[in-house]
Amino acid sequence: MVKKLFLLDAYALIYRAYYAFIRIPILNSKGLNTSAIYGFTTTLLEVLEKQKPTHIAVIFDHPSITLREQEFANYKANRQETPQPIKDANPWIREIIKAMNIPLYDFEGYEADDVIATLAKRAAEADFEVFIMTGDKDLAQCVTDKVKIYKPGKQGAPAEILGIEEVKTKFEIANPLQVIDLLGLMGDAVDNIPGVSGIGEKTAVKLIEEFGSIENIYNRIDEVKGKVRDKLIADKENAFLSKRLATVVSDVPVPLIEKDLEYTAPDKEALLPILTELEFRTIGKRIFGEEFSVVNKSQAAKSSTPTLFEDPAEESDNQNDGIMAANTIANTPHTYHIADTIELHENLVQLLLSQKEIAFDTETSGLDSMDTDLVGMSFSFKEHEAWFVPAAKNFDETKIIVERFRLVLEHPSIVKIGHNIKFDWQVIRQYGVEIVAPFYDTMVAHYLIDANQRHKMDFLSENYLQYTPVSIEALIGKPGRKQKLMSDVPLKELAEYAAEDADVTFQFKQKFDPLLLQKELTTLYNNVELPLVETLQEMEWHGVQVDGNFLNEYSNQLGKELLEIKDKIFAQVGAEFNLDSPKQMGEILFDRMKIPYSGAKTKTGQYQTNEDMLSKLADEYPIIDSIVNYRELAKLKSTYVDAIPLLISSKTGRLHTTFNQTIAATGRLSSINPNLQNIPIRTDRGKEIRKAFIPRDKDHIILSADYSQIELRIIASISKDENMMLAFKNGEDIHTATASKVFNVAPHEVTKDMRRKAKAVNFGIAYGQSAFGLSQTLSIPRGEAKEIIDNYFTQFPGIKQYMNDTIVF
User: Fold this and answer.
1) pLDDT, tens only, 274-323
2) Among 77, 96, 769, 771, which one has the highest count of C-beta atoms within 10 angstroms of its own C-beta?
3) Do 348 and 485 meet the contact criterion of CB atoms below 8 Å apart?
4) Considering only CA atoms, which of 8, 57, 14 is closest in space to residue 38?
């Protein structure tokens, strides 16, 4: 059997994981930033699952003074202090590694690289196939026929494995050991290895290609010409120092004990409380099976689901072996009632009318609130107690049942609590009853408390109530032909499921109210977010009229144009092919037509034919314009013109989007089914689609309202830039005013092109756009873009000062 050893560079992987989530960090309910822990653990599991190493070890840097620091005091001196979340993650990661039964190494006086190099060398001598798992380039010097670098892929991409040939190609060198010479010449900013001042990567590669090593360069220094020779002579001491610093030590006194490195299986008993405390649901289920929960109040039998680390054929003698179950409906005392007669309805109404607040939830036959049937309603006003009111089999009878609860749902002083109450509101509204304020939405409340987390009921219940609700799949099965309808579920099961939702929702409010108060969000919640719920519900309910006939005619027109373009392309190529296939498109353009291809291929070996790639070729090859035109029309037709009519409600004849209030952490609304915020506007053909949105009748109009230049007004206000504030106070067009100052012309002399460029700068600068970015946006030389930006900051110094102050802050 092949012995396969993986050596993991701990901190390289930990830092990589931390920064992968830097924009949206992963936080558990206690506020611990678990990004680094989650990313590292996921990477570790990926390796164990996909690479199946026979032996494995994780190597950390030792906190002691290293040999390199003793020789060069400034070694790694320019590194920023370790981010606190990484410091916090360190002990957790070490505990996970130990619980996974993986050996952990750190050795006094040495860095992880040295320990890795030593173990790799000794393992190769013992006939192991060795993979060094790191993102650091310096360990490439260790690559041999037995030792390879394993770089984890980014964002789901496959890992990159570097053997001898790959290292030679990547660094443009003759053998992997020359990585040391390269680093000796060009230095390494990450580790503060100085290198030779003025020698960059290209020059270093040329020198090593010609001379082979730093020693040979200085032995033949007279063969080096010009300023490069002067730089080498002036910095000779640094060149050799840097080579020594870049050379990993491969004789650390650490023994290679094969049995210690052998991978077996995790210690589940040790691992379970760690993953539970960290609230790693996905990882927990990956290791323990579907029954894993972040709550561990009691024990359950071993999961029947085979997991990543167990043989499904194995049976445990210990009935308590396995995961700890959450609090669930099965082990939590509760009283859920069924109200299915007129008398019980009336009794429940009287009971609800005597409460100050009640939780309310609907069960429906589908997920489209405007096109679904009510299966039942549930109410709760006390923890672990709730009532379920089943609906009738037809609309008219159900309407009578709902009507009995009008007094409750429209009561002006009872708080109606819902989780995504907008949905329940619209369902009930179809039966002629409203939800009248005051109301409370627990989903929106949690969105304010922690915008970056998920807001679904199951997730929040486990986090805040330490309770796992019944899953919808447990009730009706997984999606597919065999999935049951909600109306087919036996009444007792349905009542338990539905009443539990109301119960959990009621408990959410008791948890979230104090948190809103603690975070000083109560005013924002009551005065902005809750009124917005009502407004959005009203907008969704009324929808927008769409001229389906216009879209059908436009679809036919686009279809004819697409056929004409397709025939034109086929004529230019001299062959027919699938225009919607990127693979065939690439083969036609770059193999058949011999158009030069300069980009990298995809991971499956295909040519890239995306818009960026094709736009570079448009000026020289007329066929590119035809292809881009075809794609634009095909997308318009399929995504909008043909898709929108299918979403028109058969009940109202209008289009009813859903506005999401709890998606974007910035507070911005999003729109789905369809996305009305994304109807095309930039092209003439795209604008045509907007003509389909019309008033519903002669008594209504479509009103377009836009807060003029809101972002720039905010920038002017917070930066206190005098010129920008003056332009707004004088009622000037801000882009014309900007162009006038930047291009040093009178306002009446500003051309459309000048205004266009000024507009791009106004909005681009605010988001940190560089000269390169502006040059790409405006298709102008980088030098011209830089000049525009420099002039902008000269004319609006307050904005430049504000940006600088913000960076310092």
Assistant:
1) 998 898 888 988 888 877 877 653 333 333 344 545 443 333 333 333 33
2) 96
3) no
4) 14
Question: Is 25 strand, coil or helix?
Answer: coil
- Which tokens sit at 43? 């990477």
The predicted pLDDT at position 325 comes to 41
pLDDT tens track for 440-450 = 999 999 999 98
Return the beta strands (E) in 661-798 as ranges: 670-672, 693-694
Decide which of 576 and 423 is more confident.
Answer: 423
9 DSSP β-pair partners: 59
Q: Dump pLDDT digits (tens) for 27-40.
A: 887 778 999 999 99
Enumerate the H helices of 528-675 as residue ranges. Answer: 530-542, 548-573, 582-586, 611-615, 622-635, 643-646
φ, ψ for residue 693 (rounded to 5)?
-90, 115
Query: How many angstroms separate the CA atoms of 455 and 439, rounded?
Result: 18
CA distance 133 to 58: 9
Structure tokens at 801: 């000062």
Whole-structure pTM value: 0.64
Q: CA-CA distance, 358 to 352, in Å (whole number)?
A: 7
From the list 260, 252, 249, the residue with the least C-alpha distance to 56 is: 260
Q: What is the mean pLDDT of residues 540-544?
A: 95
Average pLDDT, the chain: 87
- pLDDT reported for residue 156: 63
Q: What is the mean pLDDT of residues 124-130?
A: 93
Instruction: Return the SS3 of 611.
Output: helix
Share of the chain above pLDDT 90, in %: 48
- Which tokens is 291 given? 């029954």
Tokens of 74: 């400034």
Single-letter code of the amino acid located at 121 = K
Task: Report the 10 Å Cβ neighbour count for 97.
Answer: 21
Position 36 scores a pLDDT of 94
Determine the pLDDT at residue 545.
Answer: 95
Helix H or strand E encompassing 358: strand 357-364
Separation between Cα atoms, residue 610 and residue 487, nearest integer Å: 47
> How many angstroms separate the CA atoms of 263 and 56, rounded?
6
Q: Give Cβ neighbours of residue 51 (< 8 Å, ≥ 6 apart).
A: 4, 6, 131, 150
The residue type found at 524 is: L
d(CA 621, CA 609): 14
Contact 337, 285 (CB under 8 A): no
Q: Chain-centre distance of CA 125, in angstroms?
A: 43
Q: What is the model's pLDDT at position 295?
A: 65
Helix H or strand E segment including 351: helix 342-353
578 by DSSP, 3-state: which?
coil
CB burial of residue 172 (10 Å; 0-12, 13-18, 19+):
middle
- Cβ atoms of 688 and 554 closer than 8 Å: yes
Closest to 562 (Cα-Cα) out of 693, 681, 685, 682: 685
Structure tokens at 629: 């035109």
Asked whether the predicted pLDDT for residue 460 surpasses 80, the reply is yes
Looking from the CA of 721 toward its CB, the CA atoms found within 13 Å total 23
Q: What is residue 137's DSSP assignment? A: G
Closest listed residue to residue 690, CA positions, set 644, 629, 638, 630 = 644
- The number of helices, as runs of H, and strands, as runs of E, in the chain is 37, 19
Torsion (CA) 215, 220, 221, 222 in degrees, nearest 10: 180
The rounded distance, in Å, linking the Cα atoms of 702 and 691 is 11
Q: 363-387: per-residue pLDDT in tens?
A: 998 888 888 899 999 999 999 999 9
Biggest CA–CA distance in the chain, Å, is 106
Gap between the Cα atoms of 506 and 445, Å rounded: 13
Lowest mean pLDDT among 61-75, 319-333, 391-405: 319-333
Radius of gyration of the chain (CA): 33
The confidence score (pLDDT) of residue 463 equals 82
In 3-state terms, what secondary structure has residue 97? helix
Contact 286, 45 (CB under 8 A): yes
